[in-house]
Amino acid sequence: MKAIKYIHDCGIVHRDLKPENLIFKTKAEDAEIMITDFGVSRVMEDDKMQLLTEICGTAGYMAPEIFKKSGHGKPVDVWAMGVITYFLLCGSTPFDRDTQKQEIEAIIVGDYKFEPEEYWVNVSEAAKDFIRECLTIDPTSRPTAEEALKHKWLADTESHFVLDQQGNMKNLLPHIQKAFDAKKTFRNAVFSVMATKLERMSALASAKQLSPETSAFGADIVQYMEESEKEIIDKI
């Protein structure tokens, strides 16, 4: 969040914050965290927030105003930090749904819950409140990066750990790993099915010696799959 405040103070909005774009500077235990991939970032003045209207970013981390095309700016980065925090505390994203259309619809209305309950039982109320603040639908009511840094979860001198009966910190990792592995297993299964279909189509094309036009279409399938996500977003 300090890094977000820094780039915002420099007049930069990142617009594609996600775990993949946060890296450790070194392998040390206390390594600094760096923000990467400024490919869709913009330099803008505070009084020109309404100028940015194009849809960009990664769907699950995009703020409602981006999909609404109502004009967006620095608040979208704070929203993304709320999604990232949710993910880091439980292993899944708050608006994860069966289809991307459902995911986008959930984002637009801010439809998320701290569920399953077992994944959140060891997370402090202060942490949940921080997420709620970041995931405020109205960007004008959403805290700035500077205001978010003053939230009790980040600013208090004492950490907000959930303790067991012996006074020890409860471990979040088992639940996080369970949620993450479940999603990874599902996606691997989907990708395996897709890969099998592509292999069969390729074999069929070779066996039947299809026309150049049909063969070219088969070669474009992967590209169509990559572009489908953007198509869905644009239609919505």
Automatic annotation (TrEMBL):
Pfam families from the entry?
Pkinase
This protein's source sits in the domain of life called Eukaryota
UniProt GO molecular function: ATP binding; protein kinase activity
Residue spans making up a coiled coil are none
Q: Protein kinase domain location, by residue? A: 1-154
* PANTHER family from the UniProt entry: SERINE/THREONINE-PROTEIN KINASE
Q: What is this protein called?
A: Protein kinase domain-containing protein
